[in-house]
Amino acid sequence: MKQLYWNICGEGSRDLVLLHGWGLNAGVWHCIIDRLAPHFRLHLVDLPGYGRSKGFSAMSLTDMADIVLQQAPPQALWLGWSMGGLVASQIALSHPERVQGLITVSSSPCFTAHAEWPGIRPEVLAGFEQQLSEDFQRTVERFLALQTLGTESARQDARLLKAVVLQHQMPEVDVLTGGLEILRTADLRQGLAICTVPFLRIYGYLDGLVPRKVASLLDSAWPETQSVVMKGAAHAPFVSHPDDFSKLILDFSQQNQA
Fold it and tell me: Any idea where the AB hydrolase-1 domain is (predicted)?
């Protein structure tokens, strides 16, 4: 039976599951592990087909969420970055009894731009999908570079993300294409509007993939949720601002003790 890479560390009594974004793996969290480990039992997961979770083919958002849930603790805080935010959100919708709190980072319930909704233009995602078949390593690197644009530490942060990808064998093209399909088609706005779990949304002020306007639109649509827009941060705020980011997670955890 195929198993996800699932590493548990930390000295805290509360479980925190961390889900990475498209093209990456659990190594992306190394900037904040030391800051969070004294407070949580951290569950560092490589999503199906990514990093060390080999043998999985492309799958739907629902299937990905179901597979992750199989190895998860009975109850936990769930933190998902970018595409991982969609996976964590899907778990909160399908199994709210397993979710003590939901934290999405630089994520959107709908990544694709529509008439009145800000996001990634459909032709940009289609372009990435086409380029994957031609030169998928360079395409992944270009996507990573977009995630750090505008920050003071942009080059350093982009190098760090690239190193995380190259640390392990690159995901298969069909897995990457399937991930882009999730980003292109998923729309959890309706479901999350009635989600009852405690919910914190974290954004980067300079994020070019999830515009900060998403934060204010959801503040109006989901008044029961909390949001923070981190100044000076782009798509990977835990990389560029690890201290400030970790404090947000700790504060949210303390506010929502089980």
Answer: 16-242
Contact 162, 250 (CB under 8 A): no
Give catalytic status of residue 241 as yes or no: no
φ and ψ at 92, to 5 degrees? -65, -30
pLDDT tens profile 197-243: 999 999 999 999 999 999 999 999 999 999 999 999 999 999 999 99
Largest CA distance in the chain: 49
Alpha helices in 28-151 (DSSP H): 30-36, 61-70, 83-94, 122-146
pTM: 0.96
Q: Is 235 a catalytic residue?
A: yes
56 is in an annotated binding site: no
Tell me the C-alpha distance between 209 and 218, whole Å.
16
* Distance, CA of 161 to CA of 212 (rounded, Å): 22
**Catalytic residue list contains 82:** yes
Active-site residue among 15, 20, 43, 82?
82
Angle between helices 61-70 and 83-94 in degrees, nearest 10? 70
Q: How far is CA 98 from CA 76, 89, 202, 217, 249, in A?
A: 6, 12, 21, 27, 18
